[in-house]
Design goal:
The chain is mainly β. The protein is built from one helix and eleven strands, in the order βββββββββββα. Strand 5 and strand 6 form a beta hairpin. The longest helix has 15 residues.
């Protein structure tokens, strides 16, 4: 079943943001009405949305850039008030330092994908930015290539490659190269022809 939208978006705004990765253990707990320390990352997209990584609350909140910053009262966190559009939950049952450490978007014109560095669970999550739907994740706890020890930051370059950095005793960066499977299949076919 498709995720249920969290908010009604005013006309002309993108489709609603929905819950993502919500676990049964946390479904009966209401979301916190305020940010918890630390708010760990902010990204502004081409379409004027502001994505805020509220790390300890395991969520990414979404705001309308044109409405954020004005004097406003929204103590209950109601959507549509003060520019608040909705929130995306990622591994909501994560304890400790939380699951939304850093965020970035894909380099395509629509910025279709949202990437989230999750330092507690040591994953990089890939979400559809418009809906908040989780598509996949990569990584796991460890110290080998492709594994993470406190993945802390990420950045996406103009080719879609993802760079991650690790803190504590991880102390390294890794580069994950975007690969087009069609190109790999073509390369494999050419190799097969040469081997015959």
């Amino acid at each position: 079943a498709a995720p249920t939208p969290l908010v009604a978006i005013p006309e002309g705004m993108p489709p609603p943001v929905v819950t993502a990765g919500l676990t049964v253990a946390a479904q009966n707990q209401p979301p916190a009405p305020h940010f918890r320390n630390p708010v760990h990352a902010v990204r502004v997209t081409h379409d004027g949305l502001v994505y805020v990584a509220d790390r300890v609350n395991d969520r990414i909140q979404v705001f309308d850039k044109k409405k954020v910053g004005a004097v406003c009262q929204n103590p209950t966190g109601a959507s549509g008030v003060c520019g608040f559009l909705g929130e995306i939950f990622v591994e909501r049952d994560t304890l400790g330092p939380g699951s939304t450490w850093d965020i970035d978007v894909s380099p395509d014109r629509q910025q279709k994908y949202l990437f989230n560095a999750d330092g507690s669970n040591n994953y990089v999550w890939t979400l559809l930015r418009r809906t908040g739907h989780i598509l996949d994740r990569f990584g796991r706890n460890g110290r080998n290539a492709g594994q993470f020890h406190w993945v802390h930051n990420l950045a996406v370059d103009s080719k879609g490659n993802i760079y991650t950095s690790e803190v504590d005793t991880g102390k390294r960066i890794q580069k994950f190269v975007l690969r087009d499977d069609d190109d790999k299949d073509k390369h494999d076919d050419d190799k097969d022809k040469r081997d015959k």
